[in-house]
Amino acid sequence: MLQVGFSFIAVGLLGYYFGPVKAGIANVLADIISHTIMATGGSFFLGFTLTALVSGVIYGYMLYNHKVTILRTFITVLLITVIVNTGLNTLWIHMMSNVPYITLLVPRLAKEAFSLVYQTGLLFIVLRWIDNSKFNRIDR
């Protein structure tokens, strides 16, 4: 089943406003807090915390102090999709479940292709709106 999430918008905004270091740290803290306070019964795995760090750094590096364009937004989401979602997260699931990497990867590719499209569109709309509003001056 395909789950559509929106946490990428929050991480994208962290990167846009605060840059790679602060966005990476904030995303790591959010990951740890969510597993501590709002535990869903799954076990904590440090690999996913590393994924949170990498995601925050990518969003921050690509979006902080840069003009919001559809191309920049697409490249940002593409990097997240390839490096984080398809690469690292699949690796962590493989390590936790012992299911062969390629067996996990194939079904994830279609989901990630869909995610690339909707995440690019939504993130661009949100960032463009913020870029053109009074909210674009936080910590700048």
Question: Would you kindly provide a written description of the structure presented here, covering whatever features stand out?
Answer:
The protein is mainly α. The chain has a single domain (7-137), classed as Arp2/3 complex 21 kDa subunit ARPC3, CATH 1.10.1760.20. Helix content is 77%, strand content 0%. The protein contains four helices and no strands. The chain has helices spanning 7-37, 46-63, 70-97, 101-131. Helix 1 packs across helix 4 and helix 3 (70-97) packs antiparallel against helix 4 (101-131). The longest helix is centred in the N-terminal third of the chain and has 31 residues, at 7-37. The radius of gyration is 15 Å and the shape is globular. The model has no long low-confidence stretch (mean pLDDT 90). This is Integral membrane protein. It comes from Companilactobacillus kimchii DSM 13961 = JCM 10707.
Estimate the mean pLDDT confidence: 90
Number of domains as seen in the coordinates = 1
**What fold name stands as the CATH topology?**
Arp2/3 complex 21 kDa subunit ARPC3
Distance between the termini: 41 Å
Summing up helix and strand content along with how strands pair, one would put the structural category as mainly alpha
- CATH architecture label name: Orthogonal Bundle
Determine the number of helices (DSSP H or I, runs of at least 4 residues): 4
Largest sheet: none
Seen as an oligomer or otherwise, the chain set is single chain
**What level of helicity do the residues show?**
over 70%
Low-confidence stretches: none
Strand content: under 5%
What's the β-strand tally?
0
Write down the secondary-structure element order: HHHH
CATH class designation:
Mainly Alpha
Rg to the nearest angstrom? Answer: 15 Å
Q: What coarse outline follows from CA principal-axis ratios?
A: globular
InterPro entries: ECF_S_folate_fam (IPR030949)
Protein name: Integral membrane protein
Keywords: Membrane, Transmembrane, Transmembrane helix
Organism: Companilactobacillus kimchii DSM 13961 = JCM 10707
